[in-house]
Amino acid sequence: MHWNSFSDFIAMGGHGLYVWGAFGVTALAMILEPWLVIRRHRAVRERLARQLRAEARLEQAP
Amino acid sequence: MRMIHWFKFSAPSTFYPLAGKLIPWFWALFAGFALAGLWISFFVAPTDFQQGEGYRIIFIHVGASWMSMFIYLVMAFWAGMGLAFNTRLSGMMAQALAPTGALFAFISLWTGALWGKPMWGTWWVWDARLTSELILLFLYIGFIALTRAIDDSRRSDKAGAILALVGVVNIPIIYFSVKWWNTLHQGASVSLTRAPAMASIMLWGMLFSAFAMWMYAVAVALMRVRTIILERERHTDWVRELLLDRS
Questions:
Q1: Does any domain span residue B62?
Q2: What is this structure's pTM?
Q3: Would B149 be classed as within a structural domain?
Q4: With contacts defined as CB-CB under 8 Å, which chain B residues touch A29?
Q5: Fewer CB under 10 Å: which end of chain A, C or N?
């Protein structure tokens, strides 16, 4: 371990902005993408289920 | 017998539940590799004698760049399979991979800019490596725009496949650009034909983060392909049963 303190770790030897800018945006992207994919999957499922239920009701109606 | 077995999984109705079962395993592998990669990146790998701590960007930059090229090849492979054999799942796989590939191309360019500024003194140069990687990002965006612009899924798959296959020519250009031209970008850090030009602990850090990104890409692409399958197969009996049973 070559960090003397937490602030030392954050500073990254004067390159903190670059290192954390790179890791931070990468982490953000890799959280955001799966979140969007899950949200869209749920939305599509719900929309299709609603449509299918409506169709089933129409078929049952006299 | 083997062939029949594999073709079975290329049916969307069998692939949908299979993908659902595989996704958590890929997330678990991702978590393991990511933790190991981050641990090496920040706590094991020593300070670089020339670049100080700034070089730690390498641990995501290299993996993201590899994945941006690798995902493109996989995407083009599926697109080609769809053209050649007309299998329904192939086009869906290609479309599921494109956004994740574009994301890694963006991460590669973004981390490269943040590395270039302190080390080269500039965010960007129009050298062969950087320019061809930017073209890769545009190829992904072009593929996504083209396939979304065409409503009919078979025609959209075909048009996308032709674009994806033509764009493959860019991949060796990116990879060999540092050899073919005089670039500001350094040569390959890892090569299959010679010993890596770096300490083995750094190599491990890069490999772990690259594996983490690989597992991530598989998990996200499988999640996305499930959505595409549902949308395209919405008129089939198995989707009707699946969605009406659960709700």
A1: yes
A2: 0.92
A3: yes
A4: 103, 106-107
A5: C
